[in-house]
Amino acid sequence: EVQLVESGGGLVQAGGSLRLSCVASGFTFADYAIGWFRQAPGKEREGVSCVSNTDGRRYYKDSVKGRFTMFIDNVKNTVYLQMDSLKPEDTAVYYCAAGTCYSASTGADSFGSWGQGTQVTVSS
């Protein structure tokens, strides 16, 4: 079965960095796209970044472009989200998910399998 396990969240000061990990099992990255989403208190879940399984193309939400980077270790079947220059508005629960990625606006309903989420808190 498809399983996603996230880690790497924590508390950092503004301007700091975190690297989130998403370990996948039950599938390979040739089978599904991987997306990162986040949900802040009082906000809807929003897409942060995703990578296509068909051509490897990566998409980023405008507000994180240049600060966040997705990369993949195919041997370890792990997807990472490197988060630099963090801002308080990045505070949210972050989720990785497996599904389909077509654009930066691909919604959560295009992803059928989800991790449990990891909390990222950025202090001011």
Structural write-up:
It is a single chain. This protein has no helices and 11 strands. The protein has 124 residues and is an all-beta fold. The strands form 2 sheets. Strands 2, 4, 5, 6, 9, 10 and 11 form a 7-stranded mixed β-sheet that branches. A 4-stranded antiparallel β-sheet has the order 1-3-8-7, with no helix packed on it. A hairpin with a 6-residue loop joins strand 5 and strand 6.
Rg from C-alpha positions?
A: 13 Å
Beta-strand percentage?
over 45%
Count of helical segments? 0
By secondary-structure content and strand pairing, the structural class works out as mainly beta
Average pLDDT number: 95
Largest sheet: 7 strands, mixed
Residue share in helix: under 10%
Number of beta strands: 11
CA-CA gap between termini = 40 Å
Poorly predicted residue ranges: none
Sequence of secondary-structure elements: EEEEEEEEEEE
Shape: globular
